């Protein structure tokens, strides 16, 4: 089954209003900028976004938030290098925030993919993060119950992919991407290069194609930090 699609617009066309979307990346590392921008072009709205942070500058996730497409953000670091897009809307009560410690966020996403509905962690016990959550004692220590995280869609970035959806990742750009691919109902991957089936050593495959529904080739993908250094604004304002 060939899972490749011809262009970015086609890749995100199934994402509809009100969807929960996981977006890979650790800051700009592994962030699928081109897929995010294609979703901005589509003007999908009322989205719940799961990401490590709240975006930076005027591109990628920050641009999506600035354009009013996101109603709720689930993340670990809402205060990043240049989070003004999120900050402005949050202070105006126009976006909801759920803060999740980074390790807990990763495990909630992994649990969603592994079919584990809940787990216990000591992280957050005794803080506001634990408010309203069940707490249980194990061996004399208190643990907070955390629920899995799943999503309708995941937008991820990989290095190599084949038409079956098998993926490899480039160094730290791996981060949340494989976990999100597992826990989303529909995973869309942008890859730097599509190679024929069999060209990827099976031992090097990180995300098997069973977790990927669509794959689109993006040659020379943009890096968030480079775009912000050039003061890129997306979408470009046309006078």
Task: From the structure above, extract its key features.
11 strands, eight-stranded mixed beta sheet, Glutaconate Coenzyme A-transferase
Q: Could you please describe the fold and organization of this structure?
A:
The protein has 239 residues and is of the alpha/beta class. It has a single domain, classed as Glutaconate Coenzyme A-transferase, CATH 3.40.1080.10. The chain is built from seven helices and eleven strands. Strands 1, 2, 3, 4, 8, 9, 10 and 11 form an eight-stranded mixed β-sheet that branches. The protein has a three-stranded antiparallel β-sheet with strand order 5-7-6. The protein is globular and about 55 Å long. 43% of the residues are buried. The model has no long low-confidence stretch (mean pLDDT 96).
Count of strand segments: 11
Residue share in helix: 10-25%
Structural class, judged by helices and strands? alpha/beta
Q: Could you give the order of the helices and strands?
A: HEHEHEHEHEEEEEHEEH
- What is the second-level CATH architecture? 3-Layer(aba) Sandwich
Shape: globular
Number of helices: 7
The CATH superfamily turns out to be: Glutaconate Coenzyme A-transferase
CATH C-level category: Alpha Beta
CATH topology, what is it called? Glutaconate Coenzyme A-transferase
How far the N terminus sits from the C terminus, by CA atoms, comes to 45 Å
Rg of Cα set: 18 Å
Largest sheet: 8 strands, mixed
